[in-house]
Amino acid sequence: xxxxxxxATVINLALALVIVVVSYWIIRRIVSAVTxxxxxxxxxxxxxxxxxxxxMAERTSRLLILLMAIQIGLYVIDLNPIWEDRVSHIWFFVLxxxxxxxxxxxxxxxxxxxxxxxxxxQRSQLxxxxxxxxxxxxxxxxxxxxxLANLGVNITAFVASLGIGGIAVALAVQNVLSDLFASLSxxxxxxxxxxxxxxxxxxxxxxxxxxxKTTRIRSLSGEQVxxxxxxxxxxxxxxxxxxxxxxxxFSFDISYRTPPxxxxxxxxxxxxxxxxxxxxxxxxxxxxxxxTNALKFEVVYYVLSPDYNLYMDIQQKINLELLTxxxxxxxxxxxxxRSLEFLEDVPxxxxxxxxxxKGAEAASGIEIR
Length: 369
Fold this sequence. Notes:
By secondary structure, the protein is of the alpha+beta class. The chain folds into four domains: 2-151, no CATH class; 179-239, Roll (SH3 type barrels), CATH 2.30.30; 246-328, 2-Layer Sandwich (Alpha-Beta Plaits), CATH 3.30.70.100; 338-369, no CATH class. It has helices at 2-7, 10-45, 50-58, 62-73, 81-114, 125-150, 155-172, 174-189, 229-233, 260-275, 308-328, 360-363; strands at residues 197-200, 203-210, 214-219, 224-228, 238-239, 246-254, 280-290, 295-303, 340-342, 366-368. β3 and β4 (224-228) form a beta hairpin.
């Protein structure tokens, strides 16, 4: 120590100290001025990549500036190889730390801005927090391993040991990790969001909360249904909140006693009724089939709203108007009919047996169709 001090002159030490102080002051002023302009510029632009530049500028470390000034000052001093190697390690550590701080600031800002989509729908705060946390952990793990590698540590064996330990932990908590990644899949792919009305299996209700392991659904009958995220994603889910319009198909039967000219008036009549109702779009109305007991008509139209109550109001209005219009035209609906034909001459084979119950002889002369 004293031998090294004796080798360096007092003038060189003083000059190095002055250079460090002046360099720090100059660099600090330059960085502050540039940072202030970048922040003001990003605030004025209010969006896009400029906000990330502003966030990175705010996370510029003063320690990095100090190390840069010290590095400049050390150029006037002749250091032995051991100290030069130590200074280079410190310099790499500070650079890696600063790079990590910049990237970490970008990740945090991205997570905050991603919670609010362009359409105004709030994204899952839990999902974005988990994703940003995982990315930040990976980032600082890379920074840590880079510093160890710069110090001469063999990180290959270290990473291999971590991998073996990670596999053991993953096998121990396999079910928990399955639900965790299912929650991430829900947050990223977004098959449904909080507030959506979904139907799967025999369950129908609104999504109340999406957690790490389970999703809570408020059913139509009022109780809360709790379902595992993994099991939920294995179901075929009908999301009715994202339905822009509702396709309606209904049919009705007309009596065979209706004259053909009146039957031909029914399809245009149905079209007129549906088009007169607001928030509907008529598609088609046809005489579908000649059934055994009636003429079957099939009608298709669209309700231009996903609201189920509105659909029921519209369907009721159409049904009532259809009843009124058909009654005015003396058109009757088709009803199931069973005809009884009385036979005057009953064959011997069809006559009742001598030991048949009373009334069987009379009934044997009736043919039911």
